[in-house]
Amino acid sequence: MNSLIPLFVIVPLGSAFLMAILGRFIKGFGKFLTSFGLLFLTGLSLYFIFNSQGTLVYKVGGFEASAGIPVAIYMVIDGLSKLLLLIIALIGFLSAFYSISYTKQYTAERKFYILFCLMIAGMNGIVISGDIFNMYVFLEIAAIASYALVAFGVEKEQLEASFKYQVLGGVASLLILMSIGFIYWQTGTLNIADISTQLPTSGAFIKFVSILFIVGFGLKAAIFPFHSWLPDAHSSAPSPISAMLSGVLIKAIGIYVIFRLFFNMFPISYEIAMTITILGTLSMLIGVLLAIGQWDVKRLLAYHSISQMGYVILGVGIGMVVLSKGGDKTIAAFSILGGLYHLINHSAFKALLFLNAGAVEYRTGTRNLKRLGGISQKMPVTSATSFGAAMAISGIPPFNGFFSKLIIIIAAVQAKFYLLAFFAVFVSIVTLASFLKVQKYTFSGKLKPAWEKIKEVPFSMAFSMIILAGLCLVLSLLVIPGIRDIVLKPAVDVLLNTIQYTTTVLGK
Amino acid sequence: MIVYILCFILFIVGLYGVVTKRNLIKIIIGLAIMEYSVNLFLILIGYVNNGTAPILPVPDALKNKPFVDPLPQAMILTAIVIGLATTALLLSIAIRLYRKYGTFDIRKINSLKG
Amino acid sequence: MKGMTIIVKKITQIMAPIIFLFGIYIIVHGHLTPGGGFAGGVIMAGAFILLILSDGSILSSLRKEESGLEFLESAAIMGFLIIAGIGLLISGTSVFFINFLEKGTVGKLISAGVIPIENIVVGAEVCAAVSTIFIALVVFKDEVSK
Predict the structure, then answer these.
(1) Is ipTM beyond 0.85?
(2) pLDDT per residue over A372-382, tens digit each?
(3) Cα Dmax for chain A
(4) C1, part of any domain
């Protein structure tokens, strides 16, 4: 079983370069190889979720630890990684399948799929890496592929958004690299588990490096004060890529790394936990307030991504605060569960919403809400799935968003953060208003004469949207204890038992 | 200690360029300066006074001798490769932007708002 | 792109093969001395870039060159991945990136198992990649100035 772990990087990387070699001779090779590769990865991650217990450690190159010091590059798969791997592969597969029809408008289709596979390889690499510098390298692979994909349309807006994204992403990467340098200076090791045993438990050094990491990964994850690139980049990219960026990339290269480092590597401190929680709350509020006035549908969705990521950070942050104060572990577990559950849910409904926006743009050629109207008669599948996704993101039962938001709010009340609970409810209401606006202006009402001739989208696009809409409903089942224990509980345990990661990886 | 401070000043110079300059190419140069300062910082971490290069021409050649830490050197080699890719991509995007807008001035490149 | 004067052309034509050879030297001694695939590859690409700069070239031939180099680059990465992946297929070990060849004695040119082979592959990859970047920027610049 352990020897299957490198496949998560080999398969997307290999298919990317196989496409570069064979794709120029065989037409349509790229699209199908990407979809098949990602379907295989989905199956593999499901296999890992249902068949493996605990933490799996894999040492690249077969170098064993000498005298207790880890030498090799470690690949670690635990509950949290499995969850992220499943999301990456599943949303990646659906986006790739959607792209089969969508990318017909581009001339360099082959390069689209090469970059897509490289992005997947980078994200998978981050998630399974147990080594902080390796994490940085994979992060850069994913980030550079995403910079190129944002600019893929080579129009004015795409290029400008990509430039902005690259400059801010470049600064973030350098901050991350610098903090990795500081960590290495202090501890003399790069292995996350080994670092956590070497770091001092408190002091100015820890705080300084923590702030550097929060700024660096906060820029990558678009947490509130660092969010300015996200609406541009996510709205300008081709729609399947927007779905990948919002649905998966900001989670894998931003949120996941923050959780992993601040729970499993740094000693948990109250100040940092509070900082993360407050940043999460602020991005939740500011994201939704900025989204209200938008008339470009993809831009509106991008602002909602900032806001919904705020929920995830809020949920996990409250758990971290409770843990740092030595409070009740069940409350912390409940809160973290809510955050991670919302992370899964967000990737399902936000990917679906971006694919819907892409479908509307594919047929009508516009994203401006004022110019759209009444197209539900012409595009019933898009309209129905979009309705489901809008209900899910606004937290209407029985869709998945309701349950995760409810868990976060209950946990906030239990932990006596009444103000934060109030904000969470308030943001949910504003989100509902915002999405009712989208539904009203896009799909309902009278059909504008300009859109008399449009048709429903092709099969591959409709298929992806229907599956994602189904997921929005099916994921509600994760609240049922039996199913929750298989998928979510291992991930929560990883974050809850902070020191366990170190001991299992180092094998002490 | 003074080298670390100089290294940090170099980082700030790059950041100043990124934040204040209006020309796309100058922003890219600012990013490159930041990158070099971080690379320099990593190299300085691994430096040992009077250390030799960490090469083993014969086994046990480095026994009881101070030698510089090879790991940061491997790290910056990777970081340089990544920096090469980022800079090349940034430059090509900048050239494309120049083609679309006819200028390198970021104040005139503003089709995205809100 | 226009070429330079006869002096520059002649000197470059003499120097480029030497630079290229030096790049190869750096690559094949990568496991013994500082250097290796990346440094040697960049030096080899430098020889190409010097030739293109001094002699000048026609844009259409550059485009053809670019697609060939892209192919070489992808093939080299595939080769690297296959060398790394062979370890997974070897029964008993199934370790990614394992050094499955005979290690030899330290200091000899043919030693260190798969590392020299990996160096050569990386060298080809980097040479192709750096040349591609250069050619792409030249092509872009030409498109803009038209």
Answers:
(1) yes
(2) 877 888 888 88
(3) 76
(4) no
